[in-house]
Amino acid sequence: SLLLFAVVLLLTAEYLRARRPRSFPPGPWAFPLVGNMFSLDPGNVHGDMTELAEKYGKVYSLKMGPSWTVVLNGLSALQEGLTKGDHLNDRPEFPIHSDVLPDLGIIFSNGHMWKQQRRFALFTLKHFGVGKKSLEFSILDEFMYVSKEITNHKGKPFNPHLLMNNAVSNIICSLVFGHRFEYGNEKFLKMMKLFDKGSQIEASIWAQLYNAFPVLMRRVPGPHHALQKIYREIMDLIQTEVNQHKEDWNPSEPRDFIDCYLSEIQKRRDKSDDDADAGFNEDNLVMCGFDLFGAGSHTTSVTLRWALLYMTKYPEIQEKVQAEIDGVIGRSRQPSMRDCADLPYTDAVIHEVQRMGNVVPLSLPHVTNRDIQLGGYTIPKGVTVIPNLTSVMFDKNEWETPGTFNPGHFLNQEGKFVKRAAFLPFSAGKRLCPGENLARMELFLFFTCFMQRFSFSTPPGVEPVLKARFGVTLSPHPFEICATPHKG
Ligand code: HEM
């Protein structure tokens, strides 16, 4: 009977804990212990979260394991939450990361250090945005290698996954390391494999359970424990590059992010800058490099794959893009960012690929840094907040045909490109993706280069599958395409 009493006591305590705090946003009934964790379809979490807003309103709450989470839906709730004030600038702790990685870098850091590291990364990205060693140059150069690989397939079906990964990872390599790798390079292949493995584990239920029940999961065997080794190996690879840079570093001619960062460390040391909290040291350099790869490669590569897939699905749209490029750029030169304004249809297609591809459907989680008022509710300090980007990018009140691929969403009556406030693939506010400009540049240049040189189609008799796979990002299921020279 003592056991029974203990069980009843435990269940009562858990029942009380599972009750929503007063004046907290409403939401579905939460089960004891697991809350709503298993009520969402693991293959369609963003879709389920968007649907729940119809029932509970634009700001509602869920219990994920033992912790309360608030989900923001629709443009005005996201703007109210993310762009007014600094109460949602922080990231919550993710035990699966914080147990393994140092509390440094940009993505998962907070406060003064986050602000300084983020500002520095933005500044450096801008620095390499123009000029002789510019990222535009690196992208066009990289396309030549991609083009060669595609041509080698001689119109036969191939899976573009690895090639897109290689191409965009090489752009981050150019930015961070100052050079690209041959696709067969051993070190490059190793790094790509490690990032792939890492993101597979991060997308698994093991990682979710770890974040919800860290004390328990630290003791439970499973693939989540492999993450430590994977991340350590990636950090070591980046550290090797840093060591090589130190050997032939010329502060007056910064070649890349590592050189700029080394200068910043020295500048602060020479000025006896005692702002140690800003965190400019070698460990942070490695971690920032890790973050730029982690956030910048997979997202862009997946978007490019979506672009190719949509072009095979809508050959008439592909032809229209090609006709526009033929008319404005022709064949005798490569595209440049300056062409963007003269290619409104192409630009609209890229934007529509990003909207429909919805690659980061729930952005990254934020956390309240004090008690806040949002959507008429009080949300206490320390509550995780999810900006549901899907709810904005597929909102039937914002888009004419939200569920259909329609470049017209970004064109006016005269066929000119128009910006849309509800286009939020990079999120909004102070945590807005700092790689937005680079990503836009990569998407525009790679895509126009593809369309200028090739026509893409599915292998005979194969229908493109547009249903997404939910993981670290929303990505297409593996697919094959055929590429033939664009005749024009
Ligand atoms: C954060 C989207 C490419 C670096 C983010 C966030 C989103 C996003 C939604 C979370 C914002 C938030 O917390 O609310 C994308 C998409 C991309 C892309 C859709 C490509 C199509 C890139 C690239 C880089 C990059 C190319 C770097 C070179 C980062 C970093 C963060 C971030 C460092 C963390 C920012 C912070 O916590 O302050 N990105 N991103 N991203 N992204 Fe991107």
TrEMBL record:
- Kindly list the cofactors needed: heme
GO CC terms on record?
cytoplasm; membrane
One Pfam family named in its UniProt record: p450
Superkingdom, natural source: Eukaryota
Q: Which residues bind heme?
A: C433
Major location, coarse class? membrane
Q: What InterPro entries does this protein map onto?
A: Cyt_P450, Cyt_P450_CS, Cyt_P450_E_grp-I, Cyt_P450_E_grp-I_CYP2D-like, Cyt_P450_sf, Cytochrome_P450_fam2
Please provide, alphabetically and separated by semicolons, the GO molecular function terms listed in this UniProt record.
heme binding; iron ion binding; oxidoreductase activity, acting on paired donors, with incorporation or reduction of molecular oxygen, reduced flavin or flavoprotein as one donor, and incorporation of one atom of oxygen
Q: Name one GO biological process term.
A: organic acid metabolic process
Spell out the PROSITE patterns in the cross-references. CYTOCHROME_P450
Q: Where in the cell is it found?
A: Membrane
Give UniProt keywords alphabetically.
Heme, Iron, Membrane, Metal-binding, Monooxygenase, Oxidoreductase
UniProt lists the family membership as follows: Belongs to the cytochrome P450 family.
- The name under which this protein is listed is Cytochrome P450 2J6
What species is given as this protein's source?
Answer: Liparis tanakae (Tanaka's snailfish)
Q: Give the gene name.
A: Cyp2j6_2
